[in-house]
Amino acid sequence: MSKKLPLQTTRSVTPVAAYHQDLLLRDGTLLRLRALRPSDRDGLKALFHRCSPESIRYRFLSTIKSLPVELLDRLVKVDGATQLALVVVPLEEPENRIIAVGRYHVIADRPQVAEVAFLVEDDFQKRGIGTQLLDALAEIARAHDITHFSADVLVDNLVMISVFRKAGYALTSSASYGVTHLEFPLLDKADPA
Ligand SMILES: CC(C)(COP(=O)(O)OP(=O)(O)OC[C@H]1O[C@@H](n2cnc3c(N)ncnc32)[C@H](O)[C@@H]1OP(=O)(O)O)[C@@H](O)C(=O)NCCC(=O)NCCS
Question: Helix or strand or coil: residue 162?
């Protein structure tokens, strides 16, 4: 693997919790990418309520109008190794305003495979954030010996599928009941196949 993480990430919690980097969008906007913190609970809830019903449906694969407490608990509680979440926030305060979140969790009986999911606030979609979140998650996952990502995506979610495809991953997919299940290896794309 030729790429090195900007910050050390190991199987322990602390280094991933310290992960942060600046995020430069194609239009010149500078944002901050950092690890999710327990204090981001309200920020995640606010992001959910700022998103359109369509974005929420794409993220959760069904129409939900509010975030059940148990689901919010699960979204906030990450261990930094088998579950990990990165958020995109403004560079300036209020730094607890969350613009986007990308996360993965390792699948219980497949320790080298993690399922990824993303939510980018509508006004910030299609500006490159999802692509950069995917890159960052993949880099951290590789450092945790995760070899594959998987994702469940509504069949009409062409933007999400395009993000995975344009990132250069070799996708395998199967569709069932309106959901496409994608899986792809996290090869270091800088290396020859
Ligand atoms: C899907 C999502 C995460 C993508 O994030 P994003 O920040 O909007 O993605 P990016 O801007 O990095 O890339 C979007 C790409 O899709 C392409 N795209 C845009 N509209 C498209 C369409 N109708 N069909 C196909 N591709 C399209 C864009 O061209 C862009 O490619 P580019 O890199 O050449 O510009 C975001 O739109 C989102 O949160 N959607 C709602 C929730 C969701 O779908 N989550 C996924 C569940 S796993």
Answer: helix
